[in-house]
């Protein structure tokens, strides 16, 4: 229950924020006159001076008077921090932070601000404060992301990824966290994830930093660029600081030139060929990167002037939390620091070890050959999860692997943590069957995740990619298993079939389902007696509607269009295409889509325009090649 004094203060804050400054000042003064020894009036005057008059000196004087009457007034301490936050007088901000750490030890705001003050001076000193803030407010993505970023800079990448995963589970669109994780993924050589995260960052916040991340990551879609950069990463691994494309390229050239030195002992010509080849690869890679970036046209908003922070959201007392209604994120195993300024553990203070791979010459030479034959499969070995996993299903997948690993190691399973109590007896009975136990121990998650609001599901397959069963989770705990041999009751079989269909529908939305649905509706309209085709034409691009109607006035063209009911969907990112054939394997038609709408049609001999016919042959050739992959 909120106290009367807090209610008074909140009411006065509203008056100040609404611009009713004089009325607020009179009310605050009346509180002081009525109760000179009560802190509320001075606290209200402090807020009027800070948010209304923008007079920091007067505001601080009132804050000090407030604390004189009530040294434990959390609102006053928080306002004191806000007064000097971002100013040159860090000592005064630190004073109020220390008061908050002393008298409001359960508030995450104060350790976070202390960490921010120490961050520029000493990351190791700042880290325990950010950790404490993330622990006190486990639902705050900013605090978890900040601690994650500090841990990454200190070389504790595993801890950093765990906390960043938790931060993005809490708020997947937090711009700073997504940008940081995109940069880390790029610096660790996980280029596929870096590209996905960079695009997500640009969608979340269309600014210069997000655009830089996209420009940085996009060229790695080319296998040669990705190969060269990965090799460059090996040579610059011991060096600190941000790893940029330029540094990776320099590392590639200089590193392989050093490796070419032994070739000169064989023959000067062989050595020169090796050095020239390395340089040529560097130049070609640079040209390819520039060509790919040149295709990008990103209109980025200019950075806006910073808006003055209003203290109200920070000072206002938060509503009481309903613990029973909040699902806590998966706890991360770590030691809690209870002191105000605890040192990092001995292990955390040790510098990161130098990657020994840079000294193994044969391994690097083999890597040059092997990388050239590899596709970009960097996401496969990323600690058993990808960015899509973080958006949903990561905690369920973690618990699945916990159960599986326990079975592999013949360890006892802490069922209260990872298996629902109602399902544990049935699970224990299932694991008594050697065939099912072996199937569970040899299974992996596919990354496909389904959430129906109450229950969550993961697809599980074996190492050859064959579907084994579906796992059902509730509150992140294993709740049931569906599949052949796992639940052979009629209800179980029906539920298994229903879930498989739901997975297909969920995964099929981005694979041409809507394009095919629109095409079928357009065909049905022109096959019927519908004279105006109004509904069908809403699925046709405005610029193409008249041309398409003229095409359908030709009976031969119309009949071929209606009869082509076999579809093959291809997406080249700029446009989407349906290759359409009839049951007699006649000449295919090509339907071009943009934003799920039909924007053009190509067919053999459909147009007398040579350019249209040439485009038809080009697209058909490309689609046949794509379809053969």
UniProtKB/TrEMBL annotation:
Sequence intervals crossing the membrane: 249-266, 272-292, 354-374
InterPro entries named among the record's database cross-references: TPR-like_helical_dom_sf (IPR011990)
Keyword hit for Membrane: yes
Superkingdom to which the source organism belongs: Bacteria
Keywords, alphabetical: Membrane, Transmembrane, Transmembrane helix
Protein name: Uncharacterized protein
């Amino acid at each position: 229950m909120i106290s009367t004094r807090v209610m008074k203060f909140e009411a006065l804050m509203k008056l100040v924020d609404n611009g009713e400054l004089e009325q607020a000042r009179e009310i605050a003064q009346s509180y002081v006159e009525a109760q000179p020894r009560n802190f509320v009036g001075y606290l209200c005057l402090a807020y009027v001076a800070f948010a209304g008059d923008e007079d920091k000196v007067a505001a601080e004087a009132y804050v000090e008077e407030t604390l004189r009457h009530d040294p434990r007034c959390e609102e006053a301490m928080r306002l004191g921090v806000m007064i000097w936050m971002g100013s040159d007088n860090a000592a005064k901000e630190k004073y109020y932070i220390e008061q908050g750490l002393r008298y409001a030890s359960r508030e995450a705001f104060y350790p976070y601000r202390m960490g921010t003050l120490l961050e520029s001076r000493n990351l190791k000193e700042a880290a325990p404060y950010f950790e404490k803030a993330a622990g006190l407010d486990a639902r705050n993505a900013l605090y978890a992301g900040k601690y994650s970023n500090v841990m990454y800079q200190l070389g504790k990448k595993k801890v950093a990824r765990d906390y960043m995963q938790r931060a993005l589970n809490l708020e997947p669109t937090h711009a700073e966290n997504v940008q940081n994780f995109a940069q880390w993924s790029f610096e660790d050589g996980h280029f596929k994830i870096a590209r996905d995260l960079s695009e997500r960052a640009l969608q979340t916040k269309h600014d210069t930093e997000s655009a830089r991340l996209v420009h940085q990551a996009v060229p790695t879609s080319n296998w040669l660029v990705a190969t060269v950069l990965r090799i460059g990463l090996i040579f610059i691994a011991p060096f600190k600081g941000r790893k940029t494309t330029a540094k990776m390229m320099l590392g590639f050239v200089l590193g392989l030139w050093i490796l070419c030195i032994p070739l000169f002992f064989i023959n000067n010509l062989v050595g020169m060929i090796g050095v020239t080849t390395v340089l040529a690869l560097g130049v070609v890679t640079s040209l390819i990167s520039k060509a790919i970036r040149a295709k990008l046209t990103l209109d980025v908003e200019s950075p806006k002037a910073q808006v003055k922070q209003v203290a109200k959201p920070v000072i206002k007392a938060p509503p009481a939390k309903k613990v029973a209604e909040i699902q806590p994120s998966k706890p991360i195993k770590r030691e809690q620091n209870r002191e105000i300024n605890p040192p990092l553990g001995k292990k955390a203070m040790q510098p990161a070890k130098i990657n020994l791979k840079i000294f193994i010459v044969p391994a690097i030479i083999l890597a040059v050959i092997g990388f050239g034959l590899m596709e970009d499969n960097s996401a496969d070995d990323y600690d058993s999860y990808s960015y899509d996993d973080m958006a949903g299903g990561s905690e369920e997948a973690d618990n699945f692997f916990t159960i599986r690993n326990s079975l592999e190691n013949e360890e006892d399973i802490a069922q209260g943590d990872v298996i629902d109590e109602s399902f544990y007896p049935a699970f224990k009975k299932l694991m008594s069957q050697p065939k099912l136990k072996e199937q569970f121990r040899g299974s992996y998650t596919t990354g496909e995740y389904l959430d129906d609001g109450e229950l969550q599901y993961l697809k599980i397959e074996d190492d050859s990619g064959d579907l084994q069963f579906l796992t059902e989770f509730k509150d992140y705990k294993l709740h049931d298993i569906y599949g052949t041999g796992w639940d052979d009751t009629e209800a179980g079989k029906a539920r298994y079939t229903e879930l498989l269909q739901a997975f297909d529908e969920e995964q099929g939305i981005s694979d041409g389902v809507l394009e095919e649905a629109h095409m079928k509706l357009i065909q049905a309209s022109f096959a019927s007696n519908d004279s105006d085709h109004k509904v069908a034409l809403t699925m046709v691009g405005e610029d193409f509607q008249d041309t398409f109607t003229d095409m359908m006035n030709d009976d031969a063209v119309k009949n071929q269009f209606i009869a082509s009911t076999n579809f093959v969907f291809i997406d080249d990112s700029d446009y989407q295409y349906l290759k359409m054939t009839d049951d007699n394997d006649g000449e295919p038609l090509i339907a071009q889509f943009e934003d799920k709408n039909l924007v053009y049609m190509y067919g053999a001999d459909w147009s007398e325009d040579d350019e249209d016919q040439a485009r038809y042959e080009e697209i058909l050739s490309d689609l046949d090649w794509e379809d053969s992959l």
